[in-house]
Amino acid sequence: MTAKIASIPMVFTALVVFIGCTVWTIYHSFTRSRLLPAPDKWVGLDQYERLWSTRRWLVSIENLAIYGICSMILSLVIGFTLAALLDRKIRGEAVFRTIFLYPFALSFIVTGLVWQWILNPQFGIQSVVQKLGWSGFAFDPLNNPDIVIYGILIAGIWQGSGFIMVIMLAGLRGIDEDIWKATRVDGIATWKTYLVVIIPMMRPIFVTALVLIASGIIKVYDLVVAQTSGGPGIASEVPAKYVIEKMFQSQNLGQGFAASTMMLVSVLIVLIPWAYLEFGGKRRD
Predict the structure, then answer these.
(1) Which of 54, 71, 84, 135 has the highest CB neighbour count under 10 A?
(2) Cis omega before residue 232 (within 30°)?
């Protein structure tokens, strides 16, 4: 009880700062704020109309959708697969676990630069494969506007899959050994045990992993800056980069606030239905 009372000031401060800053941002998204906030220059929905008529913003939304969907699916599949393999008590598990988790310890800037070099056609994957005899091989995603977002996706998956693996492995280690013994006695195949028994039991783990992945997707910025700086052209733009550049480079706070508000709305569109299904359903039950 004492600990809860002691935490009240911190919780109250966090809520006031978060809610206050959110309301302040939304309010100024309806103004013509430029270098400095201008609460008296009310323009209504003009900033939002300008935002959704800007090709750069539309491209960033499309890229975020592609990156987000692919990242969620691939991170979960790869992370769970690696965790399932390590859960078989293989030799050298600690070494493999460290190797798979190590990329997560790197910053996105470092990861972006590393994969910029790896994907560089002059001395990266393309060059190595061509030197091995496949002279016609071409793999240069970061300079191809049609597939540049997938080059960024490769770096993101490489860094994040190890962390998801650790979360999944913790969930698998929490499964009662008696369940595995019962499935073996019943003659259920291992793959079917995972699909029908283990994965449904790990639903909270998957939800946690999805929330963590989604939070990283929404704010993806430094990975893009390190690899492509939004190029070629605007082919790899993302919403977070659009917001940062509008607020600090173009000195257009109103447009930056409008874009950040739309990012908040996109989060709420996903979060509110999930929260209702997750907690509302339990109350009804």
Answers:
(1) 71
(2) yes
CB-count exposure of residue 238 (10 Å: 0-12, 13-18, 19+): buried
Q: Fill in the amino acid letter for 168.
A: M
Q: Band the pLDDT of 48: cuts 50, 70, 90.
A: very high
Alpha helices, DSSP H, located in the chain: 2-28, 46-52, 55-86, 93-101, 108-118, 125-131, 148-173, 177-185, 190-193, 199-201, 203-218, 222-227, 239-248, 253-275, 281-284
Closest CA to 47 of 268, 267, 257: 257
Evaluate if pTM is beyond 0.85.
Answer: yes
Whether 119 contacts 129, CB under 8 Å: no
Query: Taking a C-beta distance cutoff of 8 angstroms, is the pair 155, 220 a contact?
Result: no
pLDDT tens-place string over residues 168-198: 999 998 888 888 888 888 888 888 888 888 9
Mean pLDDT of 26-50: 90
253-275 and 203-218 helices, crossing angle to 10° = 170
- Dihedral sign for Cα 63, 206, 155, 250, please: positive
Chain centroid, CA 215 distance in Å: 5
Mean pLDDT of 213-241: 91
Q: For 128-138, what is the mean pLDDT?
A: 89
The pair of three-digit structure tokens given for residue 229, joined into one six-digit string: 């700086």
All domains of the chain in start order, with CATH: 50-284 (1.10.3720.10)
pLDDT at 277 over 70: no
